[in-house]
Specification:
Layout lengths: L2 H7 L1 H19 L1 H13 L4 H42 L4 H42 L1 H20 L1 H16 L1 H7 L2 H46 L5 H38 L4
Helix pairs in contact: 2-4, 2-5, 3-4, 3-10, 4-5, 5-6, 5-10, 6-9, 6-10, 7-9, 7-10, 9-10
Amino acid sequence: MNVKHIVLAYRWKFLFTLLLLLAESAAMLLFPLFIGYAIEDAINGSFAGSIQLGTLGLMTLAIGAARRFFDTRMYAVAFKSFGAQLMARIEKGPSVKTARLGMLREVVEFLENSLPEIIQSVISFFGVMAILATLNTKVFLGSLFVSFAVFLIYFVSSKRTVLFNKNYNEAVEDQVDVIHSAQPKKMDAHLDNLMQWNIKLSDLETVNFSLSWLILMVFLVGSILLAVNDGLVQYGALFSLVMYVFQFMQSIEGLPFFYQQWLRLTEIKNRLEKLD
């Protein structure tokens, strides 16, 4: 029982929400360009660009709201259905059942909240890269190098991420039994163990994030200097370039985090598929 099973069970509804998500992501990708148009038109005394930007904003709002209303109801039904199946299938006691029901909830929340963000980040990443290639070749080449460096940071730490998640989940599965034991020392040791693994995961993410952010900030400052040095001095065009660089930073910063989530869900998937 994993992400694949849930998607297949609700494939037509999932396809519908995916189409809404693609439309929303495409609209979001246009914002920096339309902001640049609005600035240039406003400087020249025209409101055409502002009207176009406002229309784009309203359209994005309508699509995004419709998708979120639909998603919430679809995944609520999915959690209820798969949760009942999971409880009927697991042979172990209430401690393991409670923990794995929580893990199933985490899978469903991943589909409802994180998966749309992943798809938006991927679309934004490749879309922005394509736009940067047309705006400034040097900035585009810089974005390729930065992408490789950031993904390398997270790839190198992936084994430790899996190990820390495995030990954390094992502690969670013991939690109900520890509570039922009503032994303060045992409870204290359990909570200490749980938080130790949580701290290790947090510290690893902090180091990865800090290294990535440092690289991204250097790229942001460098892209502005490169663009101006190459003769891009028109305010609207320069602003659009900087906005796309910043959007690239948001995408590249989010994708490795989702990769870590995927590593955690892989470990959870193995537990949900076990009968014991």
